[in-house]
Amino acid sequence: FIQPGEYTLIFQASNADGNAEPIQTTVMVSEGGQLAGDVNGDNSVNIFDLVMVAGQFGKSGAGLSGDVNDDGSVNIFDLVQVAGNFGKSGLAAAPSLLVEELTFTTQQKRDIQSAIVELKEMPIRSEVEELAFNLLKTILPERLPAQTQLLQNYPNPFNPETWIPFELGCDGEVSITIYDAVGNPVRTLSAGHLSAGGYVGQSTAVYWDGKTDGGEPVASGTYFYTLRIGSEMDTRKLIILK
Prior knowledge:
The protein is α+β, with helices and mostly antiparallel strands. The chain folds into 2 domains: 93 residues, no CATH class; 92 residues, Immunoglobulin-like. 19% of the residues lie in helices and 26% in strands. The strands form 4 sheets. A 4-stranded antiparallel β-sheet has the order 7-6-10-11, with no helix packed on it. A 3-stranded antiparallel β-sheet has the order 3-5-8, with no helix packed on it. Helix 2 crosses helix 4 and helix 3 packs antiparallel against helix 4. The termini are far apart.
């Protein structure tokens, strides 16, 4: 029997005359103790359990799934309990497959980041704490920016194209507007709704081909570019040199 519950067994047999009464009995299979650190109840302790704990790191109160030791708060002790059983499974014949994609809200990223910082600042880490630290750094390798800021475009000066990098301290609709030297808008580039994080490389930074909204190449000179997200704005200068 694999699942806990009540099972009815019926034994059927016959004697020398070919007749016999069946024997019926009931067997109760009790539920075994949950594997310590198996936060999501899938009978294995893996990265998903660690993420669930780290995603609530620093929270306190009742009913928190990440509160593994039931002390009313999600902290280092809960991470250590998960990491201490990492890789263990309650189903001997059912290996755990990581088939889900890890996605996080900005708040979950900040909670995970808080756990990483606390583990990093420990003067000495145990083997289990080191495991938790390295696993969390793997799932969140970069720190979230503390605030939104517009960075210098590159290359600069440029002709005819450039990339505009920036960092976001919050989620929101992002746009960048290019202005000429007297403040007339030349081009508006919409990046859509973005999560907090760094958008620095060419694959994530905003690209400008040096043309106006009407598709005309702009003249050489000094221009300004402004990042907008919600009520926040930041402006820098760029130069086109032909």
